[in-house]
């Protein structure tokens, strides 16, 4: 029983739970607040028969609700019936009221049609008035914008771009923001950047045209600036001279007043002429319109691209500077090439200086200095290169003048030009070199045209003409009557004049170099020294070495150089006079002409001696001795007599030279004496070498006798005093070596020679043992060969046995002396 009751209790509990679940599900369905899917799923997912049970519960619930509705309807049915009854009563009144309202509405509508029409008209007018007011207000805002835009277009049309940019700025900042909602304003806003770019392009195009214009006109600008600088310099020089004249005027008051008034009138006239000329001269602004660069600068500054514009301008100008600094290949051929080159450079920097002073920031002093330093280095390199090609001193001088004007012009614009003046000193050296080359040709022409004979003067006028050209003074010559001859030849005054011309030419280059008189004096003296020591000296040396210059010409050259040497002091005075520098100044250089002309004289003297010796050698070469002759001819050789006659006639030329003063006489006499002594010594040496010639193997005593006769003629020539001034037998001593050697063989005095050898009182002191040995061996061989040819060998041995033994003994003794000398040495 107990077991059966427990299952029933649990079943009942489950059953109650299921009923509760269905009730909850129905409550949820009735509420319509929760989704039904979940509720229905909970019903159907519990048990297999849940659907049927749920449907039963649902039907029961529906029957309950139907009963409640029925109860409620039964409760309110009487009220409903009463309301319907009252509504039917009101229906008749409502119909009557409807008719009245309809009639009233019809009458009201008819009466309000006119009012409605007037009201609508009033509303329409009010709307129009409001619209008009709005339009007026908007037009008042838009009209200034349109006016400004129209003004902008007009400014663009007349190319007032800077004003146009200002107008754009006002449009953007002031006017357009007020009416930015309108479409035409948006179009304007879109067009403004395009207009700005158009203005930039147009202004840049104008700038390019400006750059092209100044490139074309830079040479004219530079030429104008250089003319103005030159006129200013001339004006300053004239003014300085005027002050100097006034300062030095201190005597004859009445006369000085007249001169002062004349000078003032002259100076005033000069100034007026300069002013008139200045009015005719165009400036850079007259030649080039600078407004494009101003406009472009302002435009780019307003647009905020000022730095871009500055960089572009400087870049283009640097390119133009490189083009301007590039010279033509043929510039060095004419001065016009240099002038055009300098004019372009000056024009370039004049424009830059103008831009520097009329604009702010476009060109700075640092930029111009940097550009000038670059240009200056290029200019100096170009001038160094092209001036080196120039061989014409006149062209170099004109180049120098152009450089000075070029430097003065740019210095007036504030550019440093010290390096240009340093370059002028380099060009001055080259100028001096071209002058030296030119004067070298002049000197050669003068020497070629000279006849190397004294200058004949027939009367006083001719004498004064020569004296005016050359500072010649000779009191002895002045006492002589005309006609007479000056000691120098025609080349001397011509050389002197050309040296002075050279000094003038050198002085021309030193002008306008901003150097002191002392420096100019030093430069003139140095260049003159170069002319004398190098050019003139070289020409003299070449002249002396020429083969067609004979002994007479050489003597005249010696006389000429003496007079030129004496004239050097006058050249120093000449330089001092043109530079106003006294010669007593400590730093004043001296002319080296003295050494130049002394060297030339020494060279001429040496050439005289050389030519005499060469002539002697020519005579010696035609000598034809028979070294095997048994006896002499009894007279001197013909070649030697011809040689002596030549020497005698030659030295007569020396003695007949015009010795108008003691110096000339001493000079010509010394040269003649030295030449005579040199000729005799050379003749003696040549005769000695002839005897000792290694190719000559044997000599007969007859040949010795013939040779002795020739030497006697030489001694007679020396003793005849061919040139006056030798003391005693000085000239004969030139043949003493030959005389003692020949006496030794002619007398055959070997015992005396050997006994007295080495003593100061020896009769044969000048005979060297080796010389005696050589000649004795040749004589010995000659004796033996002669005996063999005559077939008298037996007789020779019989008659000359003692002489043969003597010769052998002497030979041995001479060899021992020679060996002793070599050992001692």
TrEMBL record:
Ranges for domain Exocyst complex component EXOC6/Sec15 N-terminal come to: 57-226
Q: Does the keyword Iron-sulfur apply?
A: no
Report the function annotation for this chain: Component of the exocyst complex involved in the docking of exocytic vesicles with fusion sites on the plasma membrane.
Give a GO biological-process term.
Answer: exocytosis
Question: Boundaries of each Exocyst complex subunit EXOC6/Sec15 C-terminal domain copy?
Answer: 420-778
Q: What does the sequence similarity comment in the record state about its family?
A: Belongs to the SEC15 family.
Q: What keywords were assigned to this record?
A: Exocytosis, Transport
Q: What organism, scientifically named, is this protein from?
A: Gallus gallus
User: What is this protein identified as?
Assistant: Exocyst complex component
**Looking at the keywords, is Transport present?**
yes
Taxonomic lineage is: Eukaryota, Metazoa, Chordata, Craniata, Vertebrata
Q: Taxonomically, which superkingdom?
A: Eukaryota
